[in-house]
Write a structure and sequence with these properties.
By secondary structure, the chain is an alpha+beta fold. It is built from 13 helices and 15 strands. It has a single domain, classed as 3-Layer(aba) Sandwich (Beta-lactamase). The strands form five sheets. The protein has a seven-stranded antiparallel beta sheet with strand order 1-3-2-14-13-12-11, sandwiched between helices. The protein has a two-stranded antiparallel sheet with strand order 4-6.
């Protein structure tokens, strides 16, 4: 399949690695971008954006990035914290009084953002419409008791993370998270990224394709004993092909964007939070957002993990290169986006072909990240 776009000659191996993913049958539609010290040194896309393979992936194709949305939401919260609207160590109930119900009055924002609030799912039935409409879902979260003592475990809050952080932001700032991201992050930086996709952009949205082992993680959480709450409502790999999913605000998993949006965002964070006349965060704000809140086992998957305030932190396996200072977030099925402050680097890979690799690293990510670091 044809790969289009540009690379700085120094990063020509990134194009070769990207092309190899298509040649080896791993990929059918994707994009990769790399920013180093404020300059976009790779901006590539290729393949098709539909399942049938009839629509070429374009420069402006958008794709659901799943949990990579969490990193954008973490950036939004970090901005509110730096402005004094929120505080990581303060109880969420301070700005969202209803949240104090059933023993949640002491749960702090950073406990929730590091997936330790005991609110990884709902105990009352919730259909997809309740999730899409926002308020039924957040009201249910506010009313219920934690599913484990807050702070005692890390259990991935796959969907609830976005509503917990998003409602906290809305209470403090007055804006829904999608609007905050549009006005404070995507707009100023000129990024093609949406949480709540306007219908006029729907024609640019790629169809998700479910490949081998994509949904194996669902069985893992069932085995761990946390599956019942995390399957409420049940979300599957092809949900982003529905207009209702794209239109909703689900900051834990329905961001629509591309690599040339996520790489610059992380590129800005990697170089201190500013680019030109646009300042997202200062160095202290980034340091606060990426300070380690948890490192250890994730009880839902049985694997080790590390979190700051919403950002995944560098650890074993090279998922974000070799720098111990790296931070970012991956997305179900393949997407990866991160910042490496040591290299002043922002990286993003997005795809519509969702794959699973047991406990191994996605070879698409591995090839691309290796090529980037070899070029540095």
């Amino acid at each position: 399949m044809t790969v289009e776009g540009t690379t700085d000659p120094r990063f020509s191996a990134v194009r070769e690695a990207f092309e190899s993913c298509f040649a080896d049958g791993l990929e059918t539609g994707a994009a990769v971008a790399v920013m180093v010290d404020g300059k976009l040194v790779a901006d590539l896309w290729g393949g098709h954006s539909d399942a049938a393979g009839t629509k070429p992936w374009q420069r402006d194709t958008l794709v659901n990035v799943w949990s990579a949305t969490k990193g954008v939401m973490a950036t939004a919260i970090a901005m509110a914290v730096e402005r004094g609207q929120l505080a990581y160590e303060a109880p969420i109930a301070g700005v969202w009084p209803e949240f104090a119900a059933n023993g949640k009055e002491a749960i702090s924002l950073d406990i929730a953002m590091s997936h330790r609030a005991g609110l990884q799912g709902l105990t009352v039935p919730m259909d997809e419409q309740g999730l899409y409409e926002w308020f039924p879902y957040v009201e249910a979260l506010a009313a219920q008791a934690p599913l484990f003592p807050p702070g005692s475990l890390c259990v991935y809050h796959a969907l609830s993370y976005g509503h917990l952080t998003g409602e906290t932001l809305r209470r403090a700032d007055g804006r829904m998270p999608g609007r905050f991201i549009a006005e404070e992050i995507a707009g100023p930086l000129g990024l093609d990224f949406f949480v709540g996709l306007p219908i006029e952009h729907d024609h640019r949205a790629a169809e998700m394709v479910e490949g081998p082992k994509t949904s194996d993680w669902l069985a893992l959480i069932d085995e761990s004993g946390w599956g019942q709450s995390m399957h409420n409502p049940e979300i599957r790999a092809l949900h982003p092909n529905r207009r209702a999913w794209r239109a909703a605000e689900i900051p834990g998993g329905n961001g629509m964007g591309n690599a040339r949006a996520l790489a610059p965002l992380y590129g800005v964070l990697a170089r201190g939070g500013a680019l030109g006349d646009v300042r997202l965060l200062g160095a202290d704000g980034i340091a606060a957002a990426t300070a380690q809140r948890y490192r250890g086992p994730d009880a839902s998957f049985g694997s080790d993990t590390a979190f700051g305030a919403g950002f995944r932190l560098a650890g074993e396996g090279g998922e974000m290169g070799d720098s111990p200072a790296a931070f970012g977030h991956s997305g179900w099925g393949g997407t990866q986006a991160f910042a490496d402050p040591d290299a002043r680097l922002g990286f993003a890979f997005v795809t519509h072909r969702m794959l699973g690799f047991d406990d191994g690293i996605d070879p698409r990510r591995a090839r691309l990240i290796e090529a980037v670091y070899d070029a540095l």
